[in-house]
Amino acid sequence: MPVISTKDLTKEYQSRTFSKDKILALSNFSFDVKSGEIFGILGPNGAGKTTLIKILLGITFRTKGEVQIFGKEINDDSYKLKIGYLPENHRFPSYLTGEQALNFYGMLGGMNRIDVKKKSDEYLKIVDMEKWRKTKIKKYSKGMLQRLGLAQALMNDPELIFLDEPTDGVDPIGRKQIRDVLTHLKNNGKTIFLNSHLLSEVELICDRVAILNKGSLVTSGTVDELTSVSDTFRFTVSEVNDDLIQSLLNTYKAVIKSQKEFTFRAETGEDLNKLIDFLRQKNVLILGIEKEKNTLESMFINLIGSQN
Amino acid sequence: MRFLTLMFSTFREAIAKKIFLGFFIIATIIILFFLFLINVDSVEGMVNMMESSGEEGVRQLVTGFEVGMINLSYLLVITFCFIAVSSFIPSMLEKGNIDILLSKPVSRTNIILAKFLGGVLLIFLSLTYLIGGVWLILSAKSGFWNVPFLYSIPWLTLSFAIIYALIILIGVTSQSTILSIIVSMFLVFVICPVLYVRETVIFSLVTNSTIQFIINFFYYILPKPGDINQIITDIITGSPVKSYMPVYSSVLFMFAALSLSIFYFRRKDY
């Protein structure tokens, strides 16, 4: 059973109050998130990512379509007992200290005082905010706010965690810490729904990814599926001489990266094997052959660029 | 528990806003003023003079102070509390804050009700401190324990709650603190006093029956803090209350404003 499931989810906004003009934020969006996976949602600004998260959390209401979380329609607030959420640009009451904020949101999340105390101690330590616990939030830096926000999202030990730009404003070391926390959560069977602009990060931690553009699903799949280029292979070989390089260029249309590395586009398996035979005939030692991959970023730019 | 957490967060927010500290300081100064005023020779002399005119004289002096206190408290509640509570809803609705709140298992109806009850309880406690303190001092010094003066605490709280419901409605729909303050102040200081004197002053100037009907219409549907204040004064002084209609219609207005706020908030996308 998927943890999140949507079918033909659509959201239209009024362009202005009392206006009949509509803005389509989400259009017939259908997808599933499986239990225990880190699911990334990608898309350019205004693609509908945050709208999607807000609909799933009952912050914004859908125009039509179905939404199921933990196998049930989201008709009441009870499912929120098992959910954690870190919104983008979140704002805690500035007059609270970090510890007070965690206590407040923990209690609102349905926890009792004892658990709130225990968990706030635990998560302030995990996000490395222990020494700032008694400091007023208004004195926090962006990175500190983000780490406190993450602790807030995890306080009630949720089964499903929504993170909207969790590493926004966080330095590289802090980002690594957050990634480690997410991996730790995944290992503990938690499901994570992640929206991030940092594609390299998404590539590192997400199991599956969906790409949204103009409110519609463009593609989805595992990171490997989305980044692999099916017919280009990267060869790593012992050093080749100039004559051989000329043959590779003219006969096989290879792209030479260096004297030890080139790529070759094979339309069939036979093409690939012909090149291997050729190299072996020339006593070239093949050290490695691997399917060439795009980065998630280059795939994303190509995909969205071709649509816009 | 979640409802109480939300309700008491209003307290913390109010304390953080220094304006309530200002209310507390002024209330304390007033209490101290009454404490030491009674010891001043001239005032003691006044009390002695009133005592020489009998128990009725003492009663008149004390109730006179108490009626003055009601008006002062009403002014304090309006000036300090309205300004302080006007930002409760708009600050809660700020982007980034409301998102976290709505992601918690608390219904939108309960969020509005908790904010309302939190604000009302806060004012109730503030008034209890101010009026209760003054009552204790006045009663102890004069020997006249005028219990009906304490009734002004719930009455003034009700008066506040009625306008606070309007502040919540404006806050939820406009998300603007300034607009909430302006509209509520305009209503309390301009519209309501004008409507209060409609029969004695306005109708002698405006004789057109249609306009009189419209003015009456607004009088009946809008809250009537002035009339409620008069009712409180009547209760304290032991005068008969002419009509409780202003209370009923104002309470109806309060429920209507709260219901509209909840209705709007439950349907709003954030």
Description:
The complex is a heterodimer of chains A (308) and B (270). Chain A is α/β, with parallel strands linked by helices and 308 residues long. Chain A is built from 10 helices and 14 strands. In chain A, helix 3 crosses helix 4 (142-154). Chain B is mostly helical and 270 residues long. Chain B has one domain (2-267). Chain B has 13 helices and no strands. Chain B has helices at residues 2-16, 18-37, 41-52, 55-85, 88-92, 97-102, 108-142, 152-174, 177-196, 198-205, 209-221, 225-237, 245-267. Chain A binds chain B through residues 13, 54, 57-61, 77-78, 80-81, 83, 85, 87-93, 95-96, 100, 104-105, 107-110, 112, 152, 162, and chain B through 1-2, 5-6, 9, 12-13, 16, 91, 94-107, 267, 269-270.
**Largest beta-sheet details of chain B:** none
Overall structural class of chain B, as computed from helix and strand content, comes to: mainly alpha
Tell me the helix content of chain B: over 70%
Instruction: State the end-to-end CA separation of chain B.
Output: 25 Å
Low-confidence stretches of chain A: none
| CA-atom Rg of chain A in angstroms | 24 Å
CATH architecture level-2 label of the largest domain in chain A: 3-Layer(aba) Sandwich
Oligomer: heterodimer
Helix fraction of chain A by DSSP (H/I, runs of at least 4): 25-40%
Instruction: Count every beta strand of chain B, where a strand is a DSSP E run of 2 or more residues.
Output: 0
Summarize model confidence as the mean pLDDT of chain B.
Answer: 86
Instruction: Please name the CATH topology of the largest domain in chain A.
Output: Rossmann fold
CATH class of the largest domain in chain A, named: Alpha Beta
Query: Which residues of chain B form runs of ≥5 with pLDDT under 50?
Result: none
The tally of structural domains of chain B comes to 1
What percent strand of chain A?
Answer: 25-35%
Work out the radius of gyration of chain B: 21 Å
Mean pLDDT of chain A: 89
